[in-house]
Amino acid sequence: MKRYDSPSARTCHYTLAPSPVGELKLVASHDALVAVLWENDDPLRVRLAIAGRDDRHPVLLAARTQLDEYFAGLRTRFDLKLDFAGTAFQREVWQALLGIPFGETRSYSEIALQIGRPKAVRAVGAANGRNPISIIAPCHRVIGSNGALTGFAGGLAAKSHLLALEQARPG
Fold first, then answer.
1. DSSP 8-state class, residue 77
2. pTM assigned to the model
């Protein structure tokens, strides 16, 4: 499996951001956001080489501000440079996540159809589970074909909270 340029090959820094769904770890390279990680995230889910904490990093400050606005009901779209590292297939799935409108959901099978791989439903689920930029690349908007909430790195309570937050206000 060919991997694209990995943030772990570059110097990354992080900051911590409190949120209604727990403390988030924001990670950035020099000029782009590379991860939004959960408080109890599995370190093997998204592998990064992090040089250290930098609470004044411009990308991290912008990400934290925009997440604060999102949680306060003031933002429905993020405007950040994102740097996804993964296989070509994963990156295709993650790009599809960015197209899911605020307050709406899609099923794994709908994402598979959207990227032209209708039989890759399980692979879409696996790629969704490895999404390094949670919330901003809205993997929480992907649900089971029967409408049920399914696995989520931040936990089903966080997924439910994010969906309720979005559905409670117009996009």
1. S
2. 0.90
